[in-house]
Amino acid sequence: MTATTELPRPKALSEVKGWFRPVDQQLFDWFLSRQLDHQQPGNLLELGAYMGKSAIFMASYLREEDAFTVCDLFDSPAEDAANDKEMNKSYSTLTRRAFEANYLAFHDKLPEVIQAPSSVVADRVEKDSCRFAHIDASHLYEHVHADIEAVRDILLPDGVVVLDDYRAEHCPGVACATWGAVATHGLRPIGVTGTKFYGTWGDPEPHRDALLEWLSGRTDMWHEVQQVAGYGMIRIDGKKATEPAQPVSRHAKAPTPAVGASSAPASAAAARSQRPDASRPVPA
Question: Where is the composition biased (Low complexity) (predicted)?
């Protein structure tokens, strides 16, 4: 992207470049909503942002007191030749300016942006401070392994970690690091979709039981439970999953407001109240 290239002005989340399937949007919504319903403290963290699609979605679940940290190289050189080659091959159009333009189309304030390799996160984000972390940075085993170890220290005991590309054929390093953490580093699986792994270093049973109850009431997602490393892990097929309520862009054509409706941007709490499942009982 050159200095003269027009920055993006997305009218909807679907116009933001990136890979964030409806099934994973539903699960992000479920986990993050459940944390808010239970008044679970903690901040949010994302390693690897691309153009900001999942970061924009996650930010809708921030409370006034929460911090949101996003770490990405953007246009910076990678920390080693192999990672630099991967970045140049896969993300040649990635720029921080585009990320910021996309993000600010949906939210008033940017997250805390760390433009650096994810290896610096352990020194920049406080230990035991986050309730939810999304890892979608390097695909190289050594880096993913280090990201997982860093996030383990950063997450609160019952925090949830999401790992992208855990089974993609072009990312064997991610698979190795993910299942290695399950086998030898105490990461406990909660569930998987076709693209993302959901787990915790805390007790997975409360998450799993509540998730199974929620899934049993849905007709757009198939699921089963498989035993993996001594844990019951939920496998979810979400090819037919519908999207949850979406963040609203300031560039969207404004609908005619209802009589008495406020024209002010909806807060995160207001956005939550509009989601289709917001009226469900608080899960145990």
Answer: 254-273
Which residue from 109, 116, 120, 100 is spatially nearest to 52, judged by alpha carbons?
A: 100
Q: Which of 212, 171, 205 is nearest to 189 (CA)?
A: 205
Structure letter (DSSP) for residue 15: G
Instruction: Return the closest-CA partner of residue 91 out of 51, 40, 36.
Output: 51
Q: Which residues of the chain have pLDDT under 50?
A: 1-3, 81-93, 260-284
For the stretch 92-102, pLDDT in tens is: 446 899 999 99
Indicate the pTM of the whole model: 0.85
Question: Could you tell me which CATH number the domain at 19-242 has?
Answer: 3.40.50.150
Instruction: Quote the CA–CA distance of 152 and 132 in Å, as a whole number.
Output: 11
DSSP 161-224: EEEETSS-TT-HHHHHHHHHHHHHS--EEEEE-SSEEEEESS-HHHHHHHHHHHHHT-SS-EEE
Output phi, psi for 116, to 5 deg. -170, 170
Q: How far is CA 207 from the centre of its chain?
A: 17
As a whole number of angstroms, the distance between CA 146 and CA 162 comes to 15
Cα→Cα distances 210→34, 60, 125, 206, 213, Å: 9, 22, 29, 6, 5
The domains of the chain are located at 19-242
